[in-house]
Structure formats: C-alpha cells, structure tokens
Amino acid sequence: MIEFRNVKKVYPNGTVALDGIDLKIDDGEFVFIVGGNGSGKTTLTRLLIKEEEITSGEIVVNGQSLSKLRSGQVPYYRRGLGMVFQDFKLLEQKTVYENVAFAMDVIGKSPKTKKLNVKTALELVKLVDKWQCMPHEISGGEQQRLAIARAFVNEPSLIIADEPTGNIDPEMSRGIMELLIKINQQFDRTIIVITHEEKFVNYFKKRVIRIDDGKIISDKVGGMM
Fold first, then answer.
1. pTM, whole model, 2 decimals?
2. In what order do the strands lie in the sheet containing 215-221?
3. What is the phi-psi region of residue 145: left when phi exceeds 0, alpha when psi lies from -120 to 50, beta otherwise?
4. Cα(58)–Cα(138) distance, integer angstroms
5. Which of the four pLDDT bands, split at 50, 70 and 90, describes residue 139?
6. Any residues with CB less than 8 A from the CB of 7 and at least 6 apart, and which?
7. pLDDT higher than threshold 80 for residue 135
8. What is the DSSP letter of 66?
C-alpha cells in the first residue's frame, strides 16, 4: 500500500510543487495520474522513488515511512520498484537480452534465475525473437516494450510508468497501455501511469487521479469524462 499523508513539497526558490497531498493506493491497483506541465505529478513521482525529499508530511510504502529510510537503505527500497521512462533509458551498447539482464546483474541474481526471469520478461513483451538485437535495431514501440521488460524482470511490487507513450507512434501506444494492464491483472502488480493521453485514460476506465497546482482536484474510477 502507498500512502501520501498531507505531503508538501516546496523547492528552495519558493515554488510549491505539492500542497497537502493525501492519497492512498492499494496493492494491485492500476492508477493513472494526470495533470498539465507544472501540476506536480512529476514531483510526486520523484518523491515516491526517493529522488527528492518531502518538505513536510509523510509517505508510507508497504508500512515503511520513506523519510525514515537511511541513505544506505534507499537502493534496497528501489529494488521493489520498476521504472518505465518516456525516453526508454536503454543501454545502447547492450543487446535486448543484456538490457534486461543488466537489471538483475546489479542486484546479484544467480545466472540460473537471471536466465529464467529474462526469458519470461521477453516472452511477456513479445521480444524473444529480438533478443540479440541492439536497441537501435528495433522500433520505438519495441524499445518501450523492452523498457517494460527491464522494469518487470526483478518482480517488483510496484511499476511506475512516466509518460510511457510519449515517444512512440500513436498506433503502438494502445498496445503499451494494454501490456501494463496485463501485468497488473496477470501478475497482481501495482501500476502507476503518469500520462497526458486523455484518450487512453478514458478508454481503459481505470482509476484516475488528476493533479493541478500541487493539489488533487479529482480522484475517480472510469476515466476523466
């Protein structure tokens, strides 16, 4: 479970990015977070992955208060998270297989576990036949699927997708959203999608949290309309 309890974030220049956010996301939920530029949705994500610190309030993830995590505990906390970025953040000098395997290498998984999990992840995103390709040899949609495989491979309880359709063909965007929903439903992962794509938000009829000027202005299931 994720809880934001009266969370406020004020930057040194005085900008109030989040202004008293109260939010609860249960295990296994699929949630869209929407808002315009400067609304606070990116700050919310950075606080959740411990890239920034709150000014006041409390964020609790699976019973752990993030503000009480010591610096040495942060990497272990992040092992329970999977991140999917708009710009993919793939390792250009590594193959499709190696990009996914690298996520397991950094936490010291055994070769046997790594091979099994990477195969499962590539099968999930339908990239098994591209395992020897370099990132530049596959399409933008395939690169984003690869990024999802990398986020999924360590079996995190939470996957955060930051504008996952922002850099791919609109034709492929629906497939990316459907893949994230499949992971949510089939593997019971909590999924948070940061997006501006209202057509997908309305199409999939999931929970939608709308942020504006650092405040939650709506929180409902069934799209934005």
1. 0.93
2. 81-84, 158-162, 190-195, 30-34, 207-212, 215-221
3. alpha
4. 42
5. very high
6. 18, 20, 21, 22, 23, 47, 54, 56, 57, 58, 59
7. yes
8. G
